[in-house]
UniProtKB/TrEMBL annotation:
Residue ranges annotated for the RRM domain, each copy included: 60-155, 163-240
Biased amino acid composition, Basic residues: 311-330
Subcellular location field: Nucleus, Nucleolus
BP terms from Gene Ontology: maturation of LSU-rRNA from tricistronic rRNA transcript (SSU-rRNA, 5.8S rRNA, LSU-rRNA)
Lineage: Eukaryota, Metazoa, Spiralia, Gnathifera, Rotifera
Protein name (database record): RRM domain-containing protein
Amino acid composition bias (Basic and acidic residues), ranges on this chain: 23-44, 240-310, 331-340
Similarity annotation: Belongs to the RRM RBM34 family.
Species: Brachionus calyciflorus
Highest taxon of the lineage: Eukaryota
GO MF assignments: rRNA binding
Keyword terms: Nucleus, RNA-binding
Record InterPro entries: Nucleotide-bd_a/b_plait_sf (IPR012677), RBD_domain_sf (IPR035979), RBM34_RRM2 (IPR034221), RRM_dom (IPR000504)
Length: 340
């Protein structure tokens, strides 16, 4: 007996401990089944991600724009402490140098993007009057070489069309201070608002300038075609587009229908007096066609029986040829030529 056969033979002795290990079954712990989430739980989870803003708290908060990224919470408390008790201070629109890192970590460690020099903030007061006073008095103040834009949080994206100007074709790396220095010759500026991307902080190429008086708008429009950072800009008046009401649209449609009717066949717009004419003309054309058909029947000469038989055979041959072209079967029986 070979050594290989002796190992697997029945006479070989095996340890009892090894037999126990092989005979034992590995029993995995049964995991409890997780119950399916109900509709209410899904709604709660979605509400946590997207918190709804309370209108009462928004009235008590102010928006501060064009802040230097080196500002601290203590600096804002010193400025706004005199207007009333402050509940909270929040910094927003921070762009980290490394996108993978969170914004809060980048702001604390000062690892923000070098091209983004400004940030925004929100300050919440305990009283509504203190927020209004702070927004009116601190707006336009210079802080660390930058003009602050301060307004209520509910009105941070609103501007007065009579006192403001639309700017287009701005360079993407343009700052608020570049626009301030360019339009300060026209008159006192209330604020400058440039539209930027929330994630990258890069400008989108347009913005608004609101002046303290409406007379300065005419002077600002004269700067049409001037350049900021070696790029020509477009300056226009801010005009609110009026939406047509449902009543006006109905009146316009009814007036158009009274004036005329669109003829679909000819693609011409005709009045009611003209629209009656084609109906009469069509009737006349139909009658003419009938007479023409009758005339052609009368003009044709009568054929004899022999000629009719020849014509019928020729037509039959033509039909067979066309049918062969359309359908060619693989069977040999079907492809047999017809003898005439």
């Amino acid at each position: 007996m070979s050594n290989f056969e002796s190992i697997f033979s029945s006479n070989t002795q095996v340890d009892e401990n090894l037999n126990e290990l092989f005979q034992k079954k590995i029993e995995r712990p049964i995991e409890p089944e997780t119950p399916a989430k109900s509709e209410q739980d899904l709604k709660k989870s979605s509400q946590k991600k997207f918190k709804k803003l309370d209108p009462e708290t928004e009235k008590r908060t102010i928006f501060i724009g064009n802040l230097s990224k080196e500002t601290k919470k203590e600096d804002l408390l010193k400025i706004f402490k005199s207007y009333g008790k402050i509940e909270s201070v929040r910094f927003r629109n921070i762009v980290p140098e490394d996108i993978t890192k969170p914004k809060k970590y980048a702001f604390i460690t000062k690892q923000t993007h070098p091209n983004k020099q400004t940030i925004n903030a929100f300050v919440r007061f305990k009283e509504e009057d203190s927020a209004k006073n702070a927004a009116n008095e601190v707006n336009g103040m210079e802080f660390k070489g930058l003009h602050l834009r301060v307004d209520l949080a509910t009105r941070s994206k609103v501007h007065d069309n009579k006192r403001s100007v639309f700017l287009g074709g701005l360079p993407f790396d343009c700052s608020d201070e570049d626009v301030y220095s360019h339009f300060s010759k026209c008159g006192p500026i209330e604020f400058v608002r440039l539209i930027r991307d929330n994630k990258t902080g890069i400008g989108k190429g347009f913005g608004y300038v609101q002046f303290k008086t409406a007379d300065t708008v005419a002077l600002a429009i004269r700067l049409e075609g001037t350049s900021i950072n070696n790029r020509k800009i477009r300056v226009e008046r801010c005009v609110k587009k009026q939406k047509e009401s449902k009543k006006e649209t109905k009146i316009n449609k009814s007036s158009d229908s009274k004036k005329g009717i669109l003829n679909k066949k000819e693609n011409k717009f005709q009045t009611k007096s003209d629209s009656r004419k084609p109906k009469k003309d069509q009737e006349i054309i139909k009658k003419k066609k009938k007479f023409d058909k009758e005339d052609t029947k009368m003009d044709k000469p009568k054929l004899s029986k022999e000629d009719r038989a020849k014509n019928w055979k020729l037509n039959k041959v033509k039909r067979r040829k066309t049918m062969k072209k359309k359908h060619v079967s693989t069977n040999k029986k079907d492809n047999i030529k017809f003898k005439i």
